[in-house]
What we know:
Elements: E1 5-10, H1 14-26, E2 29-34, H2 37-46, E3 51-55, E4 57-58, E5 61-62, H3 63-72, E6 79-83, H4 88-96, E7 101-104, H5 109-125, E8 129-133, E9 136-139, E10 144-146, E11 152-154, H6 157-169, E12 173-174, H7 175-183, H8 191-205, E13 215-218, E14 221-224, E15 228-233
Parallel strand pairs: 1-2, 1-3, 3-6, 6-7
Antiparallel strand pairs: 4-5, 8-9, 8-15, 9-10, 10-11, 12-14, 13-14
Helix pairs in contact: 2-3, 6-7
Amino acid sequence: MMTLDRLLLIDDDVHLIQALAEQLERWDYNVFTETTAKGGHERVLNESFDAICLDLDLPDGDGLDICRSMRRRGFNTPVIMLTASDTDEDTIRGLGAGANDYIVKPFRFSVLLARLRAQIRQHQQHDDVTLNFGPYTFKPTDKYLANVNGQRVRLTEKESAILKHLYRKGTLVSRDELLGAVWGYSAEISTHTLETHIYRLRQKIEPSDGSRRLLITEPGGYRLDGEVRTARRA
């Protein structure tokens, strides 16, 4: 099954991040925590996350510096700044450093959850993002898969669109939905057309023994299986 979205919480308030981590894990997120700027910066540069919640004021540094460092290195992971200050100046500083959103403490968990979901969803909608699943990285804009050895598997436009839609849904997708998403709602397109493309796609991405480990058929539709998470935008 698909892996959980990975979240990094960087805040020196230990009780806050422990409470947030527990609540977010109940919503099926994989949560990691750091309480210092140094620790958070190292995690950001060496690991992949789907979103980061970053305190503005840390005991050994400035959260803005971490955000600026990420952006300079090309990391486009969504960042939500957390701060006790609600001044316009701090908001402008946070957004100017590259933050995607800004939440003032204290805040309701439901608000943070909604903001996180929105930022992750928006980030994953960009076609220049590199997606990872199973042994492959997938670049929708370039229409190819690359395995761990760097070997590329070329995809047709329709094959790329099928993979992209299945990845972004993250669950079972009906045949009718796939037809509508990839071909548009045309009376001339049949489920046989979809099944043919699914078959050809399997020939490219599944193991040579014929097993179905990544692209799964279930009653009612298709889904992707395998280790999945979103990496950074190119």
